[in-house]
Amino acid sequence: MADLSLQHIHKQYDNKGLEVVKDFNLDIKNGEFIVFVGPSGCGKSTTLRMIAGLEDITSGKLLINGQEMNNVLPKNRDIAMVFQNYALYPHMSVFDNIAFGLKIKRLPRKEIRSKVEEAANILGLEQFLKRKPKALSGGQRQRVALGRAIVRDASIFLMDEPLSNLDAKLRVQMRAEIIKLHNRLKTTTIYVTHDQTEALTMADRIVILNNGEIMQVGTPKEVYNYP
Ligand code: ADP
Ligand code: ADP
Fold first, then answer.
1. Is the CB of 41 under 6 A from ligand 1?
2. Which ligand 1 atom is the nearest neighbour of the CA of 47?
3. Helix, strand, or coil here: 68?
4. Are 79 and 158 in contact (CB under 8 A)?
5. In this structure, are residues 150 and 119 in contact, taking their beta carbons and an 8 Å threshold?
6. DSSP string covering 176-197, please?
7. What's this model's pTM, rounded to 2 decimal places?
8. Ligand 1 atom nearest 212 alpha carbon
9. Among residues 41, 54, 55, 53, which one has the least CA distance to residue 11?
10. Per residue in 40-91, pLDDT tens?
11. Which residue range or ranges hold the ABC transporter domain (predicted)?
12. What share of the chain is helix, strand, coil (3-state, %, to 5)?
């Protein structure tokens, strides 16, 4: 369960530099699937990284469930992130890749096994648990990355162009799988993409960014008159 409030968020990477995020204001309700869309360099990743705590907020406030988060460490934010390049450990099996965060948390072995198996089941990875990432297809690798996020039971998912390394056919398939996953888990999600079709077909609400500023916020119907 999490709602988010971004209030007058600004970002400058250095004192003299340009503002790459300018007065970003957005309230996100628990369970929403929000898509940030806009051209490369418009500030999507930076905003996501500020929410995750991987980048400092220059000014403004980030609230999660009403609590100010600006100075909370990433590991204490109850957020799971999925990246474009999967960020899997090549020497570890699929099982160990999915289990990694749970092992660090020192969860009991039985509980780890059952969580990993449940995630593998949701994602159709049951037969691949012993394989190494290099023996998987791109889509399977991205499912492992999703599995790693699922087992954390985080109340927020942040996805940074998770499908952009996949071919067109697989992108369409994984789009549907991510939505299915969302309908099942109802985890508050922010999904970043430069692909309008992804925004249209996946979002509850779309946030259109350009040059560090919000241009428009609305449902696919409000924004593009779709479907
Ligand atoms: P997007 O995700 O929309 O492609 P980014 O948030 O990655 O955009 O980048 C927004 C702007 O900030 C770009 O001009 C980019 O070059 C700049 N930028 C991103 N990361 C850094 C950084 N670590 N240091 C300085 N500038 C950065
Ligand atoms: P993305 O599109 O996801 O932001 P990039 O390839 O643009 O990926 O950026 C990769 C990494 O480089 C990120 O950690 C980002 O913060 C950093 N980065 C991007 N632009 C700049 C920049 N102009 N100066 C320094 N670091 C940057």
1. yes
2. 6
3. strand
4. yes
5. yes
6. HHHHHHHHHH--EEEEEES-HH
7. 0.86
8. 10
9. 55
10. 999 999 999 999 999 999 999 999 999 999 999 998 999 999 988 778 999 9
11. 4-227
12. 40, 25, 35
